[in-house]
Amino acid sequence: MKSAIFNGSPRGNNSNTKILLTHFQKGLERAGGSVTSIDYLIQEKHLEEQVKHFKEAETIFLAFPLYVDSMPGMVKQFIETIGNFDGSGKKILFLVQSGFPEAVHSMEVKDYLLLLSKRWKMECLGVIVKPGVEGIKIMPEMMTRKLFKKMEFLGNEFVTKGKLDEKDLSKLSGPYKFSKFRLGVFGLMQKTGISNFYWDKNLKKNNAFEKRFDAPYAN
Amino acid sequence: MIQKITIVDGNPDSGKNPLNSFIEELTLALKAGNSHVDIFHLSEKNIKQCIGCWDCWWKTPGVCRFNDDAPETLKSIINSDLVIYSSPMIMGMYSAILKKFHDRTIPLVHPYIKIVEGEYHHKKRYPNYPKMGVLVEPNDSSKEELELVEKIFSRIKLNFHSEVKFFYSINSINPKQLSHEISHL
């Protein structure tokens, strides 16, 4: 199975999307699949080549982070550039990763991607939804290792089964919304301020902590 | 009561077409009703893609690193009672230029999280947020695609502490009717 990868993260080479894709690719290649191209959509100067790779690909893997309840604007731009392309016979796979920790935020864009596959007349092999990814830079290694293994597993399954199992996808995406108990725990973390730790650490590092509630555009 | 209105026009085509005529007539009708209307045609603006650096959350709170045309639009929105987003449907979604602009709205909220309707959402940065209205030109979109876009806006409103007051296809209402409806919000 030959795949062309399109990384739709505005952070490009430094993206969490890239980290997840790398592990997926590892599993894919171990199972005998191959990646024919990896394009970073943020590099707009390569648009012509990106479109060519897209139109020639046997299997397309489009991955991006959730931005304001949908795909980043630059990914929408790419979709518009491709337009109502007839991709009959081609297959497509998606990854939507979000900073928000629950899957509920990504459900609409997932549905959009399914409709988009229909527009392109492509067979959709799955939409991988992975919430809570922004944390991977501060997660303990044990947790990231587990996540990377899961991505590798999906890469492998993609080649061996020719599609992704809904059960494995829902295991990866976790709960749609959190339980009352988990929300209660978050409430406690909020009271103690622990839930803001990541933000506060960076605000302080940038000498911006005192300004964190600034509202510069208020009249 | 709705006094100040910001229209964010996401039509990439600035020529003569039904959506542009609708927005033009709507603006006139609203002004005739004594509303203050600011209109931003995104096709004429320079709006860079958000690069996810989070400077607006943890370096210069509330302010983006890019000093292009987005900040003046944000300033107008946050000081309005109503923001109207308008766009043609392109490939089953609102336009890329409107989406790029939406990506740039995150300086309006705070990085801290709170629970809203049992979900994680960002806290307010400002005491008040405008109500939202959406106008789309359906073009070749299916019923499913239109419904989905409406759903996406009902998620956007959760993150922006707002409510969607209307979602219309320009084929289902005329500018005068809409202006009248807005005056009763």
Provide an overview of this structure.
The complex is a heterodimer of chains A (219) and B (185). By secondary structure, chain A is an alpha/beta fold. Chain A has two domains: 2-173, Flavodoxin domain (Rossmann fold); 180-211, no CATH class. Chain A is 45% helix and 16% strand. Chain A is built from eight helices and five strands; from the N terminus they run βαβαβαβαβαααα. Chain A has a five-stranded parallel beta sheet with strand order 2-1-3-4-5, with helices on both faces. In chain A, helix 1 (16-30) crosses helix 5 (141-161). The longest helix of chain A is centred in the last third of the chain and has 21 residues, at 141-161. Chain A is globular, with a radius of gyration of 19 Å. The termini of chain A are far apart. The model of chain A has no long low-confidence stretch (mean pLDDT 94). By secondary structure, chain B is of the alpha/beta class. Chain B has a single domain (4-183), classed as Rossmann fold (3-Layer(aba) Sandwich). Chain B has helices at 18-32, 55-58, 70-78, 96-103, 143-159, 175-183, and strands at 4-9, 36-41, 82-88, 109-116, 119-124, 131-137, 164-169. In chain B, the strands form two sheets. A five-stranded parallel beta sheet of chain B has the order 2-1-3-6-7, with helices on both faces. The longest helix of chain B has 17 residues, at 143-159. Chain B starts with a strand and ends with a helix. The chains are: A alpha/beta (219), B alpha/beta (185). Chains A and B meet through helix 3, helix 4, helix 7 and helix 8 of A and helix 3, helix 4, strand 4 and helix 5 of B.
